[in-house]
Design a protein that fits this description.
It comes from Rossellomorea marisflavi. One of its GO terms (molecular function) is pyridoxal phosphate binding. Helices cover 49% and strands 16% of the residues. It has 800 residues and is an alpha/beta fold. It has three domains: 1-58 and 76-107, no CATH class; 59-74 and 109-450 and 785-792, Rossmann fold (3-Layer(aba) Sandwich); 454-778, Rossmann fold (3-Layer(aba) Sandwich). Helix 21 (494-519) crosses helix 32 (761-773). The structure holds ligand CBF.
Length: 800
């Protein structure tokens, strides 16, 4: 299509004028971006077609990753880099007077996810394609992704996100591959030759129309597919309210659920889940049957992964299709299904373990309910054989109990593999949360520590560091991230360390400029950039961070000459719209910022910045500039975390608890290259169990804590109103569920260690380099290699 800069320019100009209907000088940035996107997608098409042909004819085992969230971010830069044409395009556009960076900024983030789980799915897609694995995503094309956050006077406001406003250049609509999805209605059964068959009648049918996105691998011709389903009206039934049918249908893919932890009572969410899995499973089976004849061997050619419990209805849907549509008997269908599915658990937070009320479930999905009922009955019978008379145990494991369908139980019973996302998380699942299941199915449980794509999170988002690495060790690390370890030979090279410092300063300066532009706050790039960016949640303890900042402020006031190094504390976080406590913490961060930022006693040594509308593309700007990465969840609560890995890979040092993957980061870098504080998971869980923690004692015995907490309610904070009483009460009257006060002293001491370590710049840079050099383990290429080898059993994948 084009292989030189000249050919690119020619093709681009021609297409630009043809598609916009304008002469080049009159085209807008949006026209130019759209045309570039279309041209690149066409460029990708050849390899896309070839990859699909290859999968069809070579009959390779295919992996399907079902996820209700794919937090993709922007694709232009990633696609150009993966195709190896970034520079060609950059220079070609440069000749036309167009800055490629400006066009990158036109692209709206595809924010089809809330946080870690959705971003993990996006990283996995990149790794699978880059490793030439036949792995595809199935998800939902939400019209509005995660809400846009506006901060007004310190309060979070939510606006609908509009990624599709100007169309989306990376997708291809495929109406011919539409699927019909039935909701409501009744099930009629009939008998023939002793076999009962079922018919879903009087259902309301919704059309699931696929939009395919190419997933381009790095340095390869493999192009996999991410298929996103859009809900559209199918057939209006006479006698029904046509407008209501249209509204109800379109509502299914209207909004991403704004919270991945609290789903209760949300029928729409259940509709979304069935919509996704029904369309996907039937497509997967049709495609399988076009390549192979025999459904009994399905699991040898197809692996289906369910990303948390949201897509777990894929299991009964597969049973339904095999039995009702292909006439398989129950036992064979169950055998094939359980050998095909694998399930990842992403949290132990009990509010995130999905359960559906039977009275909501049954009428909406009558045949699926019947199947789950039967799975449950057979499962309970097996349990009875294994544990005769143990009613309590069987009740605790049942898939339907107390009027609820328990999605995690269904996922475990119906999959051959159940994995946690970090070692500690898997251990907590095995020993506590899912212990009964672990006793019954010990062989199913395994651990797969999360990973991130180093291509997006280092190569693409941190050009100064990536080119320094390249100049030192070449570019083999891009395909094989374990080779980042070669950087260790530079830890004593002061010229290299000096360059590392320069790269960091460049990124800090860039972020400082943005902060000035968006927040009007002047921050010093020579100060320590201490960053906490993630969803706002009580267990992630942004509260601990902001209270400690208030404490530093108090120290400045008590002793204006106190030896406090200059620090810029940066926050980015969205609170779920209905999560009022989290919103109050956002307000608190702003109040403390207002108090501290220009206070004369502080003398500019502390700056607090809240960056609005945290999202993937913003994270890509923030992370390369970090000196300190705050990963301070209450131990045992964060399943893994992936932000921790992104920061480490960009040379930030972790200030964290022994939680999630922080533990494995510590194992990689050693105690001397990380700042660990706080209670351990066992201690937290023990104190929770025996009730031995009294937060009030910490209030009364630690003057710093008493002072900070009193400041929440005594009018010291600007514009406090009565907002912070809720926070005050949560810490004292409600006994501080997340051990904020308990960990405060240890956290403050860890900050002192950070401050004193930062003073010795050479040693700090060495620590930073060790973090980068040992981050290869946290590439999602390693994670995917483990999934492929140990769960999906796809041959030929070496563990790098
Ligand atoms: O496994 C990916 C991430 O998933 C979560 O975000 C989730 O949605 N449950 C967890 O909270 C993270 O710890 C985890 O890294």
């Amino acid at each position: 299509m084009f292989s030189s800069q000249e050919e690119f320019k020619e093709a681009y100009l021609k297409k630009l004028e043809m598609t916009s209907g304008k002469a080049f000088p009159d085209t807008t940035l949006q026209d130019r971006y759209d045309t570039l996107g279309q041209l690149i997608r066409e460029y990708i098409s050849m390899n896309w077609i070839q990859t699909n042909e290859q999968y069809r004819y070579q009959k390779q085992k295919q992996v399907y990753y079902l996820s209700i969230e794919f937090l993709l971010g922007r694709l232009l830069r990633q696609n150009l880099m993966n195709l190896g044409i970034y520079e060609l395009v950059e220079e070609g556009l440069g000749d036309l007077g167009i800055d490629l960076k400006d066009m990158e900024d036109v692209e709206q983030d595809a924010a089809l996810g809330n946080g870690g789980l959705g971003r993990l799915a996006a990283c996995f897609l990149d790794s699978m394609a880059s490793m030439d694995l036949p792995g595809h995503g199935y998800g939902i094309r939400y019209k509005h992704g995660l809400f846009e956050q506006k901060i007004v006077n310190g309060y979070q406001m939510e606006l609908p996100e509009q990624w599709l406003r100007h169309g989306y250049v990376w997708e291809v609509r495929k109406p011919d591959l539409m699927m019909q999805i039935p909701f409501w209605g009744r099930i009629e059964s009939s008998e023939k030759d002793g076999v009962t068959s079922f018919r879903h009648v009087d259902a309301e049918i919704v059309a699931a129309v696929p939009y395919d996105l190419p997933v381009v691998g790095y340095g390869t011709t493999t192009v996999n597919t991410l298929r996103l389903w859009n809900a559209e009206p199918y057939a209006y039934k006479a006698g029904r309210d046509m407008m209501k049918y249209k509204r109800d249908t379109e509502a299914i893919t209207e909004f991403l659920y704004p919270d991945d932890t609290q789903d209760e009572g949300k029928v729409l969410r259940l509709k979304q889940q069935y919509f996704l899995v029904s369309a996907s499973i039937r497509t997967i089976l049709e495609s399988y049957l076009s390549r192979h004849g025999d459904l009994t061997n399905l699991h040898e050619h197809v692996a289906i992964h369910i990303n948390d419990t949201h897509p777990v209805l894929a299991i009964p849907e597969m049973m339904r299709v095999l039995i009702d549509e292909y006439g398989m008997d129950w036992d064979s269908a169950w055998g094939v299904t359980t050998k095909t599915f694998a399930y990842t658990n992403h949290t132990t937070l009990s509010e995130a373990l999905e359960r559906w009320l039977v009275r909501i479930f049954q009428p909406l999905l009558p045949r699926i309910y019947m199947i789950i009922d039967e799975i449950n009955e057979r499962f309970c019978r097996d349990l009875w054989d294994a544990y005769p008379g143990e009613w309590g145990r069987i009740e605790g494991m049942a898939i339907i109990a107390h009027g609820e369908v328990k999605m995690a139980h269904l996922a475990i019973a119906g999959s051959h593999s159940v994995n946690g996302v970090a070692k500690i998380h898997t251990n907590i699942l095995k020993e506590r949360e899912m212990n009964l299941f672990y006793q019954y199915f010990p062989g199913k449980f395994n651990s797969k520590t999360n990973g991130i794509t180093h291509r997006r999170w280092l190569l693409n988002s941190n050009p100064p560091l990536a080119s320094l690495i390249q100049s030192a060790i070449g570019d083999a690390w891009i395909k094989d991230p374990s080779r980042l370890s070669e950087l260790e030979s530079f830890t004593a090279d002061s010229a290299f360390l000096e360059n590392l410092h320069k790269a960091k300063q460049l990124n800090k300066k860039r972020l400082a400029d943005r902060i000035l532009q968006t927040n009007g706050i002047v921050v010093d790039p020579d100060s320590i950039f201490d960053i906490q960016i993630k969803r706002l949640h009580a267990y992630k303890r942004q509260l601990l961070n902001i209270l400690h900042i208030l404490h530093l402020f108090n120290r400045c006031q008590e002793n204006p000459d106190a030896d406090i190094p200059s620090r810029t504390f940066i926050f980015g976080a969205k609170a779920s719209p209905g999560y009022y406590y989290a919103k109050k913490i956002i307000k608190l961060i702003h109040s403390v910022a207002d108090l501290v930022n220009d206070h004369p006693a502080v003398k500019g040594r502390i700056k607090v910045v809240f960056l609005e509308n945290y999202r993937v593309s913003l994270a890509e700007e923030i992370i390369p500039a970090a000196d300190v990465s705050q990963q301070i969840s209450t131990a045992s609560k964060e399943a893994s975390g992936t932000g921790n890995m992104k920061f480490m890979m960009n040379g930030a040092l972790t200030l964290g608890t022994l939680d999630g993957a922080n533990i494995e980061i510590q194992e990689q870098v050693g105690d001397e290259n990380i700042f660990i504080f706080g209670l351990r998971a066992e201690e937290v869980m023990k104190q929770q169990q025996d009730g031995s923690y009294y937060s009030m004692e910490y209030y009364h015995h630690d003057e710093r804590i008493k002072k900070m907490l009193d400041q929440l309610i005594d009018g010291s904070l600007p514009d406090a109103g009565d907002h912070f009483e809720t926070i005050y009460d949560s810490l004292l009257a409600e006994n501080d569920e997340f051990f904020v006060l308990r960990d405060f002293d240890s956290y403050a001491k860890a900050h002192e260690r950070v401050a004193s370590a930062y003073r010795d710049q050479e040693s700090w840079l060495r620590m930073s380099l060790i973090n980068i050099a040992r981050s290869g383990y946290f590439s999602s290429d390693r994670t995917i290699a483990e999934y492929a080898r140990e769960i999906w059993r796809i041959g030929g994948v070496g563990l790098r």
